[in-house]
Design goal:
With 306 residues, the protein is mostly helical.
Length: 306
C-alpha cells in the first residue's frame, strides 16, 4: 500500500516577496524618494537630528515584536560582533540620515535628487577599497546609462540647466551622507550571520540611541518638536516606509544580489521623485521624462545581471 504525502503548501506572499530582489529594491527606492520629498517639505518644521532619532527608535520598536524571537536566538552572535554592528548602526542609521535631513534645510529638492544620483558610485568605491570588489563591464555601463537617465529627468532634457544649479552647504551635507551610506552598503554585505530582522531592529535601535545626545542638544537650544498634524504624519511615514520596510528590503536585496548589482536602484529615487511631482504637484508628463525613465530602467537591467 502506497502512502501519499500531503501536497506541499505554496509559499506565502511574504516568502515570495523576500526572494524578489528587484521588487524589494524598487520599493526601497519608492519609499526613499518619498522621504526626500517629505524631508524637504518639513525641513524648517521638524528638527533634523530629533526627527532622525525618533525615526530609528520608532522603526526599531515597530519591528521588535517580529524580531524578538530572532534577537534572543542571535544574541550571543550579536554580543561577539558588537563593534561591527555598532559601525553599521553609525553609518547606516545615525550619521547619514542626520546629515541628509540637516542638508535638506539648506538646499532644494532638485539639488538633493541630483546629488542622490551619485550614490552608486560611492557604493562601488567602498566595495573596491574594502573588499577589492570591482565593477564588471556590464555594471559600469549600467550605472553610466542609468545616471544619464537621471540627469535627463533632473535637467529636463536641457544641459544648460546644469549651469543654473547653485550648490551650497546643504548639497555638501547630502554628499557626505551618501559617502557614509556607501560605506554602510559595502559593510552590510559582510554582516554577522544573524536573521535579517535581528540585524535591522538592533542596528536601527542602536543608531537611534546614538542620536539622543544630538536631539537633546537641539532641544536645549530651543529647536523642539511641534506636535501638530504635519509632525505626526511625517513621523508615521518615516518610521514605517523609508525606515522599517525600506531597510529590510535593502538589506535583503544586497544579501541576494550584492552591493554593486543593487546600487543602480538608487537611480530609481529621482525617477520616483519626478513621478510624485507629476501625480501630486500637477506637473506635466513630457518627453524628457519618458526618455529618462527608459534610460534608467535599461541601465538597471544591464547592471543587475549576474
Amino acid at each position: 500500500m502506497t502512502l501519499l504525502s500531503a501536497p506541499a503548501r505554496p509559499p506565502s506572499p511574504i516568502a515570495r516577496l523576500a526572494n524578489q530582489p528587484y521588487v524589494l529594491l524598487a520599493l526601497m527606492a519608492l519609499f526613499w524618494a518619498g522621504n526626500i520629498v517629505l524631508g524637504r517639505f518639513v525641513a524648517h518644521h521638524v528638527p533634523p537630528v530629533t526627527l532622525t532619532a525618533i525615526r530609528w527608535l520608532g522603526a526599531s520598536a515597530l519591528l521588535l515584536p517580529f524580531a524578538w524571537s530572532h534577537l534572543r536566538r542571535d544574541w550571543p552572535t550579536i554580543r561577539r560582533n558588537l563593534p561591527q554592528l555598532a559601525m553599521l548602526a553609525l553609518t547606516g542609521f545615525a550619521i547619514n540620515n542626520a546629515l541628509a535631513y540637516w542638508g535638506l534645510q539648506y538646499t532644494q529638492a532638485l539639488n538633493a535628487l541630483l546629488v542622490q544620483s551619485s550614490g552608486p558610485l560611492f557604493v562601488a568605491l567602498w566595495a573596491l577599497l574594502l573588499f577589492g570588489i570591482r565593477l564588471t563591464l556590464a555594471q559600469g555601463l549600467g550605472i553610466t546609462l542609468s545616471l544619464t537617465g537621471v540627469l535627463t529627468i533632473l535637467l529636463r532634457g536641457d544641459v544648460a540647466t546644469l549651469a543654473a544649479i547653485a550648490f551650497n552647504r546643504g548639497d555638501i551635507m547630502i554628499t557626505m551622507a551618501l559617502v557614509v551610506f556607501g560605506l554602510y552598503s559595502a559593510l552590510v554585505m559582510r554582516r554577522p550571520k544573524i536573521h535579517a530582522l535581528s540585524l535591522t531592529a538592533f542596528t536601527m535601535g542602536l543608531g537611534g540611541l546614538m542620536l539622543v545626545p544630538g536631539a537633546a542638544w537641539e532641544a536645549w537650544h530651543g529647536n523642539t518638536l511641534t506636535f501638530d498634524a504635519i509632525t505626526m504624519a511625517t513621523v508615521a511615514y518615516v518610521v514605517i516606509f523609508p525606515s522599517a520596510l525600506a531597510y529590510l528590503f535593502f538589506n535583503r536585496g544586497i544579501a541576494l544580489i550584492g552591493p554593486n548589482r543593487a546600487a543602480p536602484f538608487f537611480h530609481l529615487i529621482p525617477v520616483f521623485g519626478s513621478a510624485m511631482a507629476i501625480l501630486f504637484l500637477g506637473e506635466r508628463l513630457q518627453l524628457f521624462h519618458l526618455v529618462g525613465y527608459a534610460l534608467v530602467l535599461a541601465g538597471i537591467a544591464f547592471a543587475s545581471r549576474k
